[in-house]
Structures are given as structure tokens and as C-alpha cells.
Design a protein that fits this description.
The chain has helices at residues 26-29, 34-48, 60-72, 90-99, 137-151; strands at residues 9-14, 51-56, 77-81, 103-107, 129-132. It is an alpha/beta fold. It has a single domain, classed as 3-Layer(aba) Sandwich (Rossmann fold). It has a 5-stranded parallel sheet, sandwiched between helices. Strand 3, helix 4 (90-99) and strand 4 form a beta-alpha-beta unit. The two termini are 30 Å apart.
Length: 153
């Protein structure tokens, strides 16, 4: 008899250009690198006894594939920064709707204080919530919420 997997699993997805954090437009995105963010999230997840994985891609199709794979991997919660795909990707939206895994949308900069085209998101109406403008701390706040949700609090 196979016992069910009781380990909780959180996936963080990073969209295009986020691999350049720390050097890309620091006036908008700060000096924190993506590796710094992922290391902090991994440490907090480990402390909480939750499996953590992070994935970054500049390619829309790769992110769609990873979202679809999340269901097969037993992911309980997704934290996603779709980056520029926020405003363009119906494919990623459809993948998130299809897998039906709760998620929080995170943006490092305050997208509502920037260019008009950044005010529209294809994800927000599906998301449990959105965090925008708090830099790398936004990911950490999203993780704390996700940890509460997967723990059933």
C-alpha cells in the first residue's frame, strides 16, 4: 500500500529578465539578485518543513510547461512573478486556470505607478492575491501566506 505524500510543496516561478535582478534597472527593481531571493525563500521553507522549488525562464512556453508540470509534482501553492508576461500571456493564464493550484502574483516594482501598459494583468483575477512594489520582500510575504495556507491555518 502506498501512503499519500504529506509533504507540502511550494513552487516559485520567475518570468523573463528576472535573471538580471541586481543589475537591471535598480531604480525599479533594487540591487537584490534572484539568487538572493531564492536562497531566502528556500531557507524559510526548509525551516517550515516545506519543499521549495524555484524556476526562472525567459521563454513563455517553458513557463507554461512548468505550470502544467506543477500539478503532476504535487505542488500545493505557486508564487509567480510573470514579469513582462503579466501583460501579454493568455497562455500562462490558461495554464494557471487549468491546473487550479492557488497562487499569489508578485511584482517587485509598483506596476500601478509605472507605464499605463503595466496596469493590466492577465493573472490578477485568478490569483489569491497580488503583492506589488515591495521589492524582494514581496516574495517573502507571499511565502508566509503560502506557508499558512499549506499548513491549513
Amino acid at each position: 500500500m502506498t501512503l499519500p505524500n504529506l509533504a507540502k510543496n511550494i513552487l516559485v516561478l520567475h518570468g523573463p529578465n528576472l535573471n538580471l535582478l541586481g543589475s537591471r534597472e535598480p531604480e525599479h527593481y533594487g540591487l537584490t539578485t534572484l539568487q538572493d531571493i531564492d536562497l531566502r525563500l528556500a531557507a524559510r521553507s526548509k525551516q517550515a518543513g516545506v519543499t521549495f522549488s524555484a524556476y526562472q525562464s525567459n521563454l513563455e512556453g517553458e513557463l507554461v510547461n512548468r505550470i502544467q508540470q506543477a500539478r503532476h509534482d504535487g505542488v500545493d501553492f505557486i508564487i509567480i512573478n510573470p514579469a513582462a508576461f503579466t501583460h501579454t500571456s493568455i497562455a500562462m493564464r490558461d495554464a494557471l486556470a487549468a491546473v487550479r493550484i492557488p497562487f499569489i502574483e508578485v511584482h517587485l516594482s509598483n506596476v500601478f505607478a509605472r507605464e499605463e501598459f503595466r496596469h493590466r494583468s492577465y493573472f490578477t483575477d485568478l490569483a489569491v492575491g497580488i503583492i506589488s512594489g515591495l521589492g524582494g520582500k514581496g516574495y517573502e510575504l507571499a511565502l508566509e501566506y503560502a506557508l499558512q495556507q499549506v499548513a491549513g491555518d
